[in-house]
Design a protein that fits this description.
The protein has 116 residues and is α+β, with helices and mostly antiparallel strands. Helix content is 59%, strand content 12%. The chain is built from six helices and three strands, in the order H-H-E-H-H-E-E-H-H. It has a three-stranded antiparallel β-sheet. The mean pLDDT is 90.
């Protein structure tokens, strides 16, 4: 979270942290396990290399994820949620639940349109 920014609304404060194009998706994948950069790229193929790195750096800067670099060849880097990042799990779960319901509704509506 930008420390020099004043927020007039708690939603604005939350979205300033998780509102990036792929941030919530990254966090969703990190709930269960640590992941390497390449694994995140495979899980989020629509994200360009540059944008994925940018989003990861911002999440790290905000204290939401931890980046662990292992001094091996080739370089191994793993990402995981920090304790602070884990406080977002209920929010991400609610977003995921809403998305599932929306997807079901969308599929149902699409099937109904095809019957017309």
């Amino acid at each position: 979270m930008q420390r020099d920014k004043l927020y007039n609304c708690p939603v604005d404060a939350t979205l300033s942290v998780i509102g990036g194009k792929y941030k919530a998706i990254i966090l969703h994948h990190l709930i269960e396990q640590k992941l390497r950069f390449g694994e995140l790229q495979r899980l989020i193929p629509q994200a360009s290399h540059k944008v994925l790195i940018q989003q990861l750096r911002e999440l790290e800067r905000d204290g939401i994820i931890h980046r662990e670099v292992y001094p091996v060849v080739p370089l191994k880097t793993e990402y995981s949620l920090t304790d602070f990042g884990k406080t977002l799990i209920p929010i991400l779960a609610a977003i995921c639940d809403w998305g599932r319901r929306h997807m079901r509704e969308y599929l149902r509506d699409t099937k109904d349109e095809l019957k017309i």
